[in-house]
Amino acid sequence: MTSMTYAQKIFSSKNFEKTCLFFVYLYSLTVVPFEHIGEVSRNILIILSLPIIFIHHKRLLKDPMVILLGLAIAAQTLSWVNSIIYLPDFANQAPKIDRLAKLFTFIFIAYWLKGKEKRTYILWSLFTVGFIIGCIVHSDFTNEITKALSGRRVDFSIKNAQFTSMFASTCLLILVFLLSRTKKLKTNITRVLSISTILLAIAFSIFVIIASQSRQAWLTLMICMLTLPLLHIIVYKSTNKKAVISIYLVLVMGIIALSQIDFIKKRALKEQNTWYSIFSGNVDHIPMSSIGIRMNSWLEASQWIKERPILGNGPEAIGLVIQQSEKFQGRLKGFGHLHNYHIEVLVSYGLLGLLIIYAMYYWLAKSLLIRQQFDSNIRSFSLFSLVFITFWGCINFFETFNGRTYGVFTHNIIFAGLYTFHLTASITKPKNRDL
User: Fold this and answer.
1) In sequence order, what are the residues at sequence separation of 6 or more whose Cβ sits closer than 8 angstroms to the Cβ of residue 352?
2) Cα–Cα dist 163/154, whole Å
3) Tens digit of pLDDT for each residue in 126-174?
């Protein structure tokens, strides 16, 4: 037996698979409450998964996600070259290819899930449990609850309120999805216990979403609700009119009920002057409020995008947008991001980089729509993928989650659970058959 064959035998063994799956689950569980453990788990997982590249290289090199990863590396390299030519004083000494490449870590995780629904359920459940544990261990939990009940904004000491609301919103989407899958449980006791646990977790997630007072999360979840019937039609080719009416009735009633809560009303109407300046076209005098900072940074970024729209200016340009702006003074000069991931990609990597990111979203959804032709159980995952892509695309319009550790983590955990079905099928399919 050659050394290569022996290595393949070890890599393909059940014990090796269980070991890698352990680190997948540990990564999902620990990043929020115990970040260092999460980082170590991720690094070990990547190292253990590297043989995938050599053993399955013939299939992987044809995989659309892997091709997009290659294009992402190329786009970042071209952007770096562009920055050397036009911004030599600020360009990096070498291209930083991890900025986009890290968004493809989910390929390794997806491989170890092996296309098994149960493993995806466990992965996402641990993500949710990890967030709840994080809320408890990072903060004075009882005090945070008390503050929230009194109408004060809280974040449970998880970076900031925007990230707390992002996590809570993602957990809510996961939990609603898991709730819809409890009908597959075989025993009544298991079903009752699962439903009860999920409902408690849903209640906590909604509480955190409200308590974090993040308007971007509120708006994004509303958009998800409004588009759900359309997404349902795309996946199932039909939809129940009564269900659609019910969804919109619940949404309207929920908005009316929530709008009566004093601190929500104040939060929603807090920046009327900012909105007046924006809609009146007085963009040169937008106040530096929460929304105003975002609008001003986007307006400043637009000038950089116009100058080099195809390849961008390199990642260092993101900070330069603020530093070289006359609108941002004092402490505002310290902002190192633009509160919009889509715009950041345009500034850094141009239209080429942004199209690669959008192609990744498109292929994720497309891969599930393809797989559901072979397995009807995949339809629910197809619908979830469209809902999550809508959510993730929208919430990244107001924050740069895809460029931050917690956001990259969330992206990779959700994408892994969705892409595992196509990846597994493409790697294991007979050579003489196509998908």
Assistant:
1) 75, 78, 79, 310, 311, 312
2) 11
3) 999 999 999 999 999 999 999 999 888 999 999 899 999 999 999 999 9
Structure tokens at 191: 């079903």
> Measuring CA to CA, which residue among 203, 200, 207 is closest to residue 154?
207
**Torsional class of 254: left (φ above 0), alpha (ψ -120 to 50), beta (otherwise):** alpha
Annotated domain spans of the chain: 67-104+290-435
- Nearest-angstrom CA–CA distance, 225 and 214: 17
Residue 356: its H or E element? helix 341-371
What is the distance between the alpha carbons of residues 419 and 435, in angstroms, rounded to a whole number? 15
Ramachandran region, residue 95 (left: φ > 0; alpha: ψ -120 to 50; beta: rest):
beta
User: What does the pLDDT look like over 204-252, one tens digit per residue?
Assistant: 999 999 999 888 998 899 899 889 888 988 998 877 777 777 777 877 7
d(CA 291, CA 50): 43
DSSP string, 52-113: HHHHTHHHHTT-HHHHHHHHHHHHHHHHHHHHHHH-TTT--SS--THHHHGGGTHHHHHHHH
Helix-, strand-, coil-residue percentages of the chain, each rounded to 5: 75, 0, 25
